[in-house]
Description:
In eubacteria ppGpp (guanosine 3'-diphosphate 5'-diphosphate) is a mediator of the stringent response that coordinates a variety of cellular activities in response to changes in nutritional abundance. The chain is an alpha+beta fold.
Amino acid sequence: MKTGLMPEGAHAAPIVALLDASTGHSHAEVARARAFAEPLLAAETLDTGENALAHADGVAAILHGIGAAQELQAAAYLVYAADFLAKPEEIVAKAFGDSHASLVTHTRKLVQMQRAARSARVSTDQKAEQTERVRKMLLAFSRDLRVVLLRLASRLQTLRWHAASKQPCPAELAAESQAVFAPLANRLGIWQIKWELEDLAFRFREPEAYKALAKGLQEKRVEREHRIEAARAALQSDLQAQGITAEVQGRPKHLYSIHKKMQGKALSLDRVFDLRALRVIVATVADCYGVLARLHEVYTPVPGEFDDYIAKPKPNGYQSLHTVVLGADGRAMEVQIRTREMHDHAEHGVAAHWAYKEAGARGYAGVSAAGEFEEQVARARKAVLNQLLAWERDTVQGEGGAVFDDRIYVFTPQATIVELAAGATPVDFAYAVHTDLGHRCRGARIDGQMLPLNTALHSGQTVEIIAIKEGGPSLDWLNPELGYLQSQRLRAKVRAWFNALQQAQTIAKGRELVEKLLQREGKTALKLDELAARLGFKGADALFEVVGKDEYSLRNIELLLRPPEPVADEDELLAQRHTRSASSPGGGRGGVLVVGIDSLLTTLSRCCRPAPPDAISGFVTRGKGVAIHRSDCSNLAEMRRRSPERVIAVAWGGGDAAGKSAPVYPVDVLVEAGDRQGLLRDVLEVFAKEKMNVVAVNTQSLQGSAATKPRTGGGDTAWMSFTLELSDATRLAKVLRDLCAISGVRSARRK
């Protein structure tokens, strides 16, 4: 099965259609989005001080100016309106669709992160690190290029507002614009935004240098513009005479680029070539070289000032011919020559080729949405993402920081970027996309070629995983020498899979053994979890696991289900003979063993504390004579079920004794009460009043909890146990009634 899943949690970027300016509904979409946002934004102010609706208008206008799709312009309003909605994603999804809702979510998240980074109080040494974090944030969100375009337009609008309103621009904002946003626009080839961001950031960061340069240009502006227009008209006429159809323009002047040239080459203003600059736009590449030949024929070229970016484009796709020639007046003049398509790309960059909406069933411009169109989209996305990666690499190496080679970036078939450690393999890639995909991975195509799963990947490659529907990893992947997995963390995932498999097999084995035992014992109705609990395990699986590992004998379960019969010894036989003969001097009555204070063959069981006139029964024990139980004792009932032949009839003796000579028997009384001061004293007073001897007291106080409050009424609970000596258990009834009458006592009963 082929797969091209995205990393877990990653957003499937919906910028997958070429710009189609002919879509008729797009303008209505912008108007509808503005109408939706206006009541929410009109009276609101952003943290910069700018009106929210005016800012959204400015962002939409900038996007329109660089040729962005109308739908992206509409999204500019929705992103800012979302700040004033209770459930923004849900509302936007219902009104405008899931694609807009996703954009709102990601853009708002990025804005919040950027604000937090800017507002963090850091030292001067840490400011570069903060700027790097913001750059990495933008890079992380570049999976959805709509977010990047919106943030670029928003930042440009913010700087424009500071310039127009003459409000001071925060130093952090200007520095971030120059160090992060302008280079990003450059990488995407959006020159209009790049140049304006640089000029405005230059204006706010170095106001004195900016004013001096602007003043120097303004002083000779009229003369310079006259010379440019004269040169433009002369070149236009000459090319027309040569039969070359061309549009010749005077190039705009960008102060920051002039400033950088003056600083970098120690030039005066007059020596900067592009103060006089022309741009020639023609129909074909052949015409570009035809214009170049004519220029060098008419004017004198300046040595070392020619660049052919058509034969060797810049990394971001920029193409043009650059040359510097000496004009008729002997002054240097720079000329750029390009086709219309190259010009559109140079001015608008990625925005000239991308729209944010997905292609419909019929595609765009007659291109099938399922065939050639998708291939074009994938190529374009990879080209843009490669530029962002190149920006990352250049910046990290340029800062002298961590070496970029410690990680690589590869693509899924859908051109989704996946970050991996250097030396990672297709198996590492599969696990990075999704753990389940990693488990089921069986093969990989790297740039369309089937290669072994331990092949080392490199940045920019496209990896397609071949996976089975069900199955798990290979044990070979855990062998470092075979090189299938480079990540220790991912090796731990594989190891955990095998551990879970082994555990499941062990539990299944243990379950089978236990169930067979229950069948032999005729106990199949017994609940397995109940059996495990009686044996001291948390659950049935815990019992099965130790049984499956042969760490727990089935004999323990047999003993629980079928306790061994005690082996009779001489003591028991003696007790039984005494029982049958009733030859005790204490007086036997018709073969009934008489129980009394002097009955040496009997013991009173502590579990139920029998006392006259309780109905009693005897159980012949091993070596301890006859144990006397109350007839309703639960322990006696269990012993009677297992060994009915050992139960004998018994009766109380010593009935003639009275007063001080009457025998006494220990009896346990349990009291539950709300804990309070003086409670124990009040209870003991009841026993003293009834002349009952208390031989043992045990008390415990428990804090009230959610579990006990509904039953006890809340507060702390006192549990008290008293052992009394009685000659007649009937006296307990009145004592228990008196105890229940004590304040706070909830219950009093015989154990």
